[in-house]
Amino acid sequence: MEKMEHIIPEEQAGERIDKVLSTLNAEWSRTQVQQWIKDGNVLVNGQKPKTNYKSTVNDQIEITIPEPEELDVVPEEMNLDIYYEDQDVLVVNKPKGMVVHPAAGHGTGTLVNGLMAHCKDLSGINGVMRPGIVHRIDKDTSGLLMVAKNDLAHESLVNQLMKKTVTRKYRAIVHGVIPHDYGTVDAPIARDPKDRQSMTVVDNGKHAVTHFHVLERFKDFTLVECQLETGRTHQIRVHMKYIGYPLAGDPKYGPKKTLDLGGQALHAGVLGFDHPRTGEYLEFEAPLPSYFQELIDNLANNR
């Protein structure tokens, strides 16, 4: 492991330690530095600081730069549906039924396995099991994902998500006929205290906002477009259930009697963001999967 020392000059006094250190090397992202602090790889005057520690003049900083972890995720050749790719970012259309990244006991067949076979340069901020992954969509949700190919791109895309400037539009089929054309669900989400495998709306949850508008009404269902303002786990599925219109086919949040679709009818069809290097706004649109379009056609025919 490489070690580096830095003494805080007057002009850096009062700044957060993670910000100071991220300016020492152009390849170090602030997120990466924060992880080093949490892991105990940064000492201030011989002591472990908190990530929000504010430096003072003549603070002696010692940084132990960890060796890059070897990825233990096996690359797998896959026929990935790639919409865009350059040296910094990649946009891929994930099929329904594919898990985004490996987890304990589930190390193969994921999008990350396929990405690793496709390109070797993926950001390492999210660790060895989730290289390049900036945001996720559920296993049975299809659609577009942006992937970071280096840490600086990763940090830019994460910041855009935090600032709510990324465009994310989904198509969904929900139970029930929604009478109004537009709506916004502003309800905090957290893990369900009664079921740790599920999320739910709770008073002390994380801020979550979903905008939706009706595209087409059927006999017992509605086709909607949902636009995410925040990106909480299962957000659209939880929010639509909360207002009484759960997603069709959803085994976790839908009604007991729902359509047999092998998972929720949800497709991440539009994705837009500012390119991390050029600042140019890029937007992509993926058509509905065949099963989704066939479902719409069948519902329309049975009105």
From TrEMBL:
Primary enzyme class: isomerase
Xref: PROSITE patterns: PSI_RLU (PS01129), S4 (PS50889)
Ranges of residues in domain RNA-binding S4: 15-79
Biological process annotations from GO: enzyme-directed rRNA pseudouridine synthesis
Reaction(s) the record says it catalyses: a uridine in RNA = a pseudouridine in RNA
UniProt xrefs under Gene3D superfamilies: Pseudouridine synthase, RNA-binding S4 domain
EC number: 5.4.99.-
One Pfam family cited in the UniProt record for this chain: PseudoU_synth_2
Function: Responsible for synthesis of pseudouridine from uracil.
Name of this chain's protein: Pseudouridine synthase
Native source organism of the sequence: Cytobacillus oceanisediminis
